[in-house]
Amino acid sequence: YCPHLGANLAVGGTIDEVQSNSCVRCPFHGWAFGRDGRNVDVPYDDRTNGKARIRTYPSTERNGFVLFWWHPDPTVDPMWDIPNIDVLEGASYHVRQAWTVEAPWQEFSENGSDTAHFAYVHGSPRVATMDEADYSGPVRRMLVSNRYPTKRGPIDGTQETVTYGPGLGITHFSIGDADIYLAATQAPLSPTRTVARFAWHYGDSTISQKMGPSFAAEVERQFNQDLPIWNHKRHIPRPSLAINDGPITAYRTWARQFYAGHA
Fold first, then answer.
1. Which long-range contacts (CB under 8 A, 24 or more apart) does 18-24 make?
2. How far apart are CA 176 and CA 149, in angstroms?
3. Are 95 and 117 in contact (CB under 8 A)?
4. Can you state the percent helix, strand and coil of the chain, rounding each to 5?
5. Which alpha helices (H) appear in 110-184, and where do they start and end?
6. What is the DSSP string of 229-243?
7. Cβ–Cβ contacts within 10 Å for residue 58, how many?
């Protein structure tokens, strides 16, 4: 938001050049701010405003996404990195999807560790099994075996997910001879609202290209099935879990590291 009179720089703001430097210009009165957040131009005044600053964020472009680092303390630098994924570097995404979820990021991201719900909410032929899980650092890795419904009947396959902090997850679905890749991002809009975005890339094989669109549509169907639950559930801090719900506890322990203070 512009420190002048509060306009949202993302709604109507423009990128401009001031003295050969890129800046963002406010849509309300045209004030411009440079890469370091300082005011560099007031179009109807000969002087800039030294007190007017906007916060800037470390940012990078990886795998077809523009990503930025946010922390409540602006002096804290990024605590992990987002690598270039070989299969996604320079790749085109065939399908993009987006939802606004009325829940915190952690509440619906927990779905990946909740293998039992795939059978009872989405009609999977059997309960998925967690074959491998590593929650030891900010980068989380999971390997899940599942039976996927297809037009040719149920097919056994796996999904290997690497999650880089709470903001980005890359999943490789290996279903028969098909390879399908999902890049999923999520960003909090408020403490109880999150925007989730999916981008799909299909492997080079004919079967991957053929199966990819229908598989992405099926995941969209399942996501929409989950929405009423996420939008109306509440967080149970100490849930009564079944024996096979173990990954949920591990997930919650992992997620705790991303909160600052008493958030």
1. 24/54
2. 12
3. no
4. 20, 35, 45
5. 117-122
6. HHHH----SS----G
7. 11
pLDDT digits (tens, 9 = 90+) for 91-104: 889 999 999 999 99
- The closest alpha carbon to 52, from 23, 77, 15, 12, belongs to 23
Burial class of residue 251 in the structure, from the number of CB atoms within 10 Å of its CB (0-12 exposed, 13-18 middle, 19+ buried):
buried
Compute φ and ψ for 72, nearest 5 degrees.
-55, -30
Burial class of residue 199 (count of CB atoms within 10 Å of its CB; 0-12, 13-18, 19+): buried
Measured in whole angstroms, how far is the alpha carbon of residue 188 from the centre of its chain? Answer: 9
> Residues 200-236, buried b or exposed e (16+ Cβ, 10 A)?
bbbbeeeebeebbeebbeebeebbeebbeebeeeeee
Distances (CA, A) of 23 to 20, 41, 46, 50, 60: 9, 9, 18, 16, 17
Q: Which residues face 25 on adjacent strands?
A: 14, 32
Coil, strand, or helix at residue 104? Answer: coil
Tens of pLDDT, residues 138-192: 999 999 888 887 777 788 899 999 999 999 999 999 998 999 999 999 999 998 9
Place of tokens 């927990």: 110
Give the residue from 198, 204, 152, 145 showing the smallest Cα distance to 178.
204
